[in-house]
Amino acid sequence: MKRIYYLFTFILLSAVSGCNKYLDILPDNKPVLEDAFKDKYNAEKYLFTCYNSLPNVVNPTNTLGISGGGDIIYSEKNTGGGFSAGPPATQMAFLKGNNVANPYVNFWDGANGASRNIWQGIRHCNVFLNHIRVEDGGPRDLDESTRDKWIAEVKAIKAYLHLYLFQLYGPIPIMDEVIPISAKGEELEIYREPVDKVVDYIVQTLDEAIEDLPTIGELDIVSEYGRFTKTIALSVKAKTLVLAASPLFNNNNNYSGFKDKRGVELFPVGDSKAKWERALAACDAAVRAAEEDGAVIMVTTDGGNNAIRGINSTNINDTTKAMVSLRQAVTASWNPEVIWAVNESTTVLQRWATMLSNDEYFNLAGSAGSDIGQRQSPTLNVVEMFYSSKGVPIEEDSDWETKGWYQNRYNTQLPDAEHSKYFIKEGQETAVLHFNRCLRFYASVGFDGGIWEGREKPLSEASFPNMMRHFGSGFKHSEAYGGYPFSGYLAKKLSHLKTTYTETRITLMREDYSFPIIRLADMYLLLAESLNEVGGPTQTDSRGHNAFHYLDAIRARVGMEGVVDSWNKYASARFKSKPSTEGGLRQIIRRERMNELAFEGHFYYDVRRWLMAEEMFNRPILGWNKDGENKTDFYNVRVLAQPRFSMKDYLMPIRTNTLLQSKTLVQNPGW
């Protein structure tokens, strides 16, 4: 197991400042640049500046995937915990829709909730690449193998930054060189490039980087762990090509006729199977590299290093192991499933995702409002997407149909002995929806009356949240004091098994972890998706494996049978043949991603690349009644929001003022 806890320190170097009017302009400040690259020490600081240009992936205040994807809902009125003007921009973009005057989460300009100005980061990368070589004034005390490795790292960073903008804005300018401030005329004409050209540029840049990037075994674990490796770059390449092959950018005729000011068509025309074949080859290569690095699907051996009192490697049972393993795949730093992780602080994320028990909440006196969070709240719509205990969707499960569980899922009942042992606290009445669900659900979602394993307590005394108005995590002190779970759920999966609150006063006692950007399960699912899109259920990869091989390997972690067996045994008659067709398997793979990767930041991008957001986000967003003071009142389904999503919302808008400053840029369709 990779158990390395190396905190990668980024050192900011304000060596280059640029004019905000243009995307990538190099100031004529020669002495500053010469100082930045005069020796190895200063050049390495500039390398870290490039790394620091990577956007945040953890903080819910400025990370679209974590809080803006539609899977998590905050109340517009919830201003507690330091928010004087309501929820962060990431959530407001979903609740209110975006705009062109001052776009929410504006990564193009680095404004209004965006964690970075991505173009500025690309400029840093180009400056580095233009000055790191000896012939360009670079350090002479840097050995050539290290120089080549640093160049490869910065190329990988630059490619990733282009990908980040591409997945948000679609066709973007390709900025491969810095523009001097003295530039005039045509040198300042910056155009958005066609989708296929952008994709080819990202892939080509990654291919160049892969040549000189180290393997994980070649890293200096003291000073380099966490930086780009061949496998990370191969995985980013695979993700780029899957995105390019997906419906948003492949056969999306809704954007037909979208041209730049040169008259160049920016979206490809027609359906291209070749794009999926290219994506399949890239996913296959990335998975093979990850497996050669030692990556495996994470299965715990000890229940989280005493996170559950009394549970260890000698007595952990299959049920506990399955639930804890999925949480540890996310919250155990540098576990063997992680391909790429980031060492950003998880303080805010864990504060917002971690429950407060009644005992903890009743010791409110003396606590600061910022110590209370409880707002990382999955929607009821997403909760219903988790599988049944038999590993199929609840609306397709024969037991859920014939026994009336699905029709009566919003009714309540007390837990039986089987459920109260691991899932629901004895004596806690809760929704039928919370019974007979897959272990992924119980590992991922904190619900009213549900057992919250960990916190260094035995299972017999496990904590559990009460979401009603006057209890625990519920809506107790209104909007003025702290956060509350607007839908009546919490994203338990994001809370480390040992993270808790003290019972003497409300103080978060957190266990930090390195947040995974890419883990092996993600790549297995992308490989399965590519296999199916190329040749359906029978298509195989370089190892002779079909899509089911990878789906079943992930499902086995949480005790589910394979896809074919599960649908054959447990689905209603009209769904039993679903895995045997390309269209049916496509639906299964998409549902698997939603189940396995829930709340980790993938949902935002997946539903958009699949062109499913219009279907999902023009329905009411549902949750329980936060004002409910007892079970009867609380378990009433409420409409929490009614977003409006149209084709234009698949691509983010560029600020009007930015377009006025650069006459050659065009706005995205519909804006």
Description:
The chain has 25 helices and twelve strands. With 671 residues, it is mainly α. The strands form six sheets. It has a two-stranded parallel ribbon. Strand 8 (500-501) and strand 9 (508-509) form a beta hairpin. Helix 18 packs antiparallel against helix 19. The model is unreliable at 1-22 (pLDDT under 50).
Distance between the amino and carboxyl termini: 49 Å
Per DSSP, what share of the residues sits in E-state strands of 2 or more residues?
A: under 5%
| Inertia-based shape | globular
* pLDDT < 50 stretches: 1-22
Instruction: Compute the number of helices.
Output: 25
CATH architecture of the largest domain: Alpha Horseshoe
Strand order of the largest sheet: 1-2
- Average pLDDT, rounded to a whole number, is 91
Helix-residue proportion: 25-40%
Radius of gyration: 25 Å
Class derived from helix and strand content: mainly alpha
Family: Belongs to the SusD family.
Domain SusD-like N-terminal: 116-239
Domain RagB/SusD: 336-671
Organism: Sphingobacterium paucimobilis HER1398
Question: Quick recap of the structure?
Answer:
The chain has 671 residues and is mainly α. It has 25 helices and twelve strands.
